[in-house]
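We treat protein structure as text, and this decision shapes the records that our systems exchange. This encoding replaces a full spatial description with a residue-level series of whole-number codes. Below, we set out a record of this kind in full and without editing:
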Amino acid sequence: MTNPNNNKHFNDEALRINRILKRENDALSEIVDEFEDFLLNYFNVLNDEDDRVVGRLQDMIIKARSRDND
């Protein structure tokens, strides 16, 4: 039979780790959002030769953002 104190410690430790990971994930998500915004704004000033590449990158960003909202 397992020791209930060990289970409580394990659960507390798992919750602590999950909170840390969530904070890190949230921080990284903010960085990614800021970078995506930068790219989308930067694409607006590029010349016409880059339209195909820009369009593909914009589509990829929009698809990634739509998955985040699901």
